[in-house]
Amino acid sequence: MSEPKKFTEQPIATAKKFYGYLLFLLLVSGAIFFYVTNYRYDRQKEAEVKREKEQAQQRQHENDSLHSDPVWLAEAHKRKADSSSKVEHTHQIWGIAAKCQCSYEDAERVFNGEIWVGMNYKMLVVERGDPDRIHESDYGNGKEYQACWDGYPASCFYCGPDGVVKSYN
Question: Which range has the top average pLDDT, 37-41, 55-59, 83-87, 118-122?
Fold first, then answer.
């Protein structure tokens, strides 16, 4: 009679080795997947931040070039002094209204150089250019801003976080 086969640990050791390699491959592939997706996400974020910076710089450049150009400023004062054409005057006011996102009446007041409580910060920038100084404060009621222009009788304007002028001096 033949002897029964003895139980050996050979198949168990082979199975352990196989599952060990399988686990190692899963961990390595998971790490590679995580690295690739995280790298792609970082690249997308970088591209988005770069695009936002470029747009902000372009807006700032447009604003700076508009208000720092001496020719434009001289022409603006001349246009304020005499508006020979009613159509040109209307187009200018509608342009201000679009920039300030305000009504035609408020844009006309900005065009005429008026200031008032309730106007917004954008109107001041269109009327006077960028401020010489901006101060931020928070005394417990939320952030408030003080924007100052040198060389004007009413030189400092106090705005809330919404940009609406609360007072000036």
Answer: 118-122
Inside any domain, residue 43: yes
Full residue range of the structural domain in which residue 144 is found: 116-169
Question: Can you name the residues that pair with 157 across neighbouring β-strands?
Answer: 147, 168
* Environment class of 145 (CB within 10 Å of its CB; exposed 0-12, middle 13-18, buried 19+): middle
How confident is the model over 144-166, as pLDDT tens digits?
Answer: 889 998 888 888 999 988 889 99
Domain annotation covers residue 18: yes
Q: Do the domain assignments include residue 53?
A: yes
- For 158, residues 6+ apart whose C-beta sits below 8 A from its C-beta are 144, 145, 146, 165, 166, 167, 168
Contact between residue 97 and residue 104 where contact means Cβ atoms under 8 Å apart: yes
Same domain, 15 and 26: yes
pTM, to two decimals: 0.47
Q: How many CA atoms lie within 13 A of 16 on its CB side?
A: 5
Number of domains in the chain: 3
Whether 4 is covered by a domain: the verdict is no
